[in-house]
Design goal:
The chain has six helices and no strands. By secondary structure, the chain is mainly α.
Length: 226
């Protein structure tokens, strides 16, 4: 019979086989892998969005402001009245000033509709577009009212199409005046941002390395009196 091991003697573990890799610590295996967390972008601000993501946000926010606050509806109604007036006057011989004013206003209204619908104004921040739109409405109202007065005074007898065109021009001027009131309500409670049009400060020039301060020049000796 094999001799029994003495009590209290420790049995040595069997040596690992040749070529076997040492076992790594279990703690290293259980460490969680650090995953980069996604930045939560604010809903009411651009945040750090760039490229297509920024344009999608700007497009959505611009159309939301343009359509829900009533600006788009008034501009489209004004544009529709002017186009209808242009069609009615196309079959009549009218003064070229009327055609010029109607064509000019159609172009300006179409420009602002495209500007706000495609969020182009968000990428041209050096122009104050709400102020520009406000002045455009004031000038449009003045031009269209003046066109109505000129059209009435230039003819003694009016054709039915001519009369309808004059009424539509006046309605477009009224819509422009209504949009001025909407712009005033839009500006209420808003303050201009400080340093909005101030250019960014220039970068300070760093002192050149390797060049110490220039030594002070010794004072010149006083010249003796002759």
């Amino acid at each position: 019979m094999a001799p029994k091991a003495a009590k209290g003697a420790k049995t040595e573990p069997a040596p690992p086989p040749a070529g076997a890799k040492p076992q790594e610590d279990k703690k290293d295996d259980k460490e969680p892998s650090e995953k980069p967390q996604k930045l939560v972008q604010p809903k009411h601000e651009v945040g750090t969005r760039k490229g297509c993501r920024r344009y999608r946000w700007e497009l959505k926010d611009s159309n939301k402001e343009f359509w829900l606050l009533g600006h788009a509806e008034i501009k489209i109604l004004s544009l529709g009245c002017l186009i209808a007036a242009m069609i009615l006057l196309s079959s009549l011989s009218v003064h070229p000033i009327l055609t010029l004013i109607i064509t000019m206003e159609i172009s300006i209204f179409s420009f602002f509709i495209l500007l706000y619908s495609f969020a182009i104004h968000r990428y041209i921040p050096f122009i104050l577009w709400p102020i520009s739109d406000l002045f455009n409405d004031l000038f449009a109202c003045a031009f269209l009212v003046g066109a109505v007065v000129f059209a009435v005074r230039s003819r003694q007898s009016m054709h039915l199409h001519y009369l309808l065109a004059v009424i539509l021009i006046g309605v477009a001027g009224v819509f422009a005046l209504i949009h001025v009131c909407l712009q005033r309500n839009h500006f209420r409670g808003k303050r201009a941002k400080k340093h909005m049009l101030v250019a960014p400060p220039g970068k300070e020039k760093e002192p050149q390395q390797g060049k110490g301060p220039e030594p002070a020049k010794p004072p010149e000796p006083a010249k003796g009196k002759k």
